[in-house]
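Blinded run. Sample ID left blank on purpose so nobody reads anything into the name before looking at the predicted structure. Input follows.
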Amino acid sequence: MATATTATILHNPRCGTSRNTLAILREAGIEPTVVKYLDTPPTRDELVALLDEAGLRPSEAVRRKEKIYGELGLADASEDAVLDAMIEHPILIERPFVRTNLGTVLARPADKVREIL
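Blinded prediction complete.
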């Protein structure tokens, strides 16, 4: 069975799930590339690629509890509008996304990352 040898995590150190996912990666012997996505947000193309690799639509990877979500009226927005909002307001990007040489997941819950290790 193949095992992951490399990983990149879109990380928010203030998020418990993100911290737990990072710990799981390290416990598996992987020192991932850590991208603090609020400081270095993905480009539109990068986010589209992550979503595609994870098999998710923007509406499935948006943080609905963020105040800006309601302010922008995203509950009834198109997928393109949600994606645009995620690019303009990276806090709306659900976390953590993890990409390994075996695949990409939105690691919620954190144990989901084990699917690509």
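Unblinding after everyone has recorded impressions. Helices lie at 16-27, 44-54, 67-71, 79-88.
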